[in-house]
Design goal:
By secondary structure, the chain is mostly helical. It has helices at 2-20, 23-31, 35-50, 54-59, 65-81, 86-99, 104-136, 141-166, 168-188, 198-240, 250-266, 275-287, 291-318. The chain starts with a helix and ends in a 16-residue tail after the last helix.
Amino acid sequence: MIGVSIAVIALTFALVLPKIADYAQVWDVVKGLSWEWIVALLLAAALNVATSAPEFMAALPGLSYVHGSRVTLGSTAVSIVTPGGAAAGMATSFGMLKAWGFEGRPVGLAVAVTSIWNQLVILGVPIVAVAMLVAQGDRNKTIELVALIALAAFCAIVAGFAVGLSNKRLTRRIGDRAARIASWAKGLVNKAPVAWNGEGFVRFRGETIVLLRRRWWYLTLATLANHLSVFVILVVSVRAVGIPQTHVTFVEAFAAWALARVIGSIAPTPGGLGFVELGLTGSLVAFGATNAEAVAATLIYRFLKDVPTLVLGLIAAGTFKLGTGTQKVAVEPP
């Protein structure tokens, strides 16, 4: 994975992007940014960081804004720097929250629910983008294909989630089978069988239903706000480099961003690095941006989306023990 990631990133930035637009031309575009647009870009990046906490706060009652920001930024940073890093990001979230005094099952529930909600938003935005393009009288076959695949995946996730929550007997059977498989796998390395079974899944199901009944709207709004703040960075980047509304409309920018989000979620490189740049640049050029403007907007967007999160997140992940004992855990009554 690391070797593939290094190869893809090197090819993208050393060979492919320079063929789309010479870096000297891209630098000329960046140097031309006015101070007003620079301020707007910094504010957009700050908005993205500021909206990182509410999603975890919605999924884990009692989590403060400061700790919510730390755990979200920390897990996101780890997932960005790790190839296929979604699992590492989830493990980081779990470890940080446990260290702050939260119990295992509520933490596991929060990590699972926020992951599912994020994936549903990522899969949902291409569907919305295609509808907006059609309403505008525009078409893009690539985005339409991605939206069709995303729609199928979206429906499969929703259906599976709904079935799992609706049937206690099915949940218990799935849990028992999962326990047998896990115990078999541990036996291969001479480890003791797992201590959990289908009843644990049933309890988890009940806790999930209670959480979603109370907080689904809070969780949904918080997740949408965080994702749309990333789109704000792209829109400001596109306008800052001089791409006018007549060349790339607001709807077309949204469609390009939706495609980039899907690519980033499935690409094997850390944070989709390399794949996202190519997909986003190609989409902006296809919609009407010049090559140099498209590459400049993509690189500015990528820098402002990832670098603040990386810096703050890695600091948060590396210093998470400093918050041990300072988080007051509030447990809601059943």
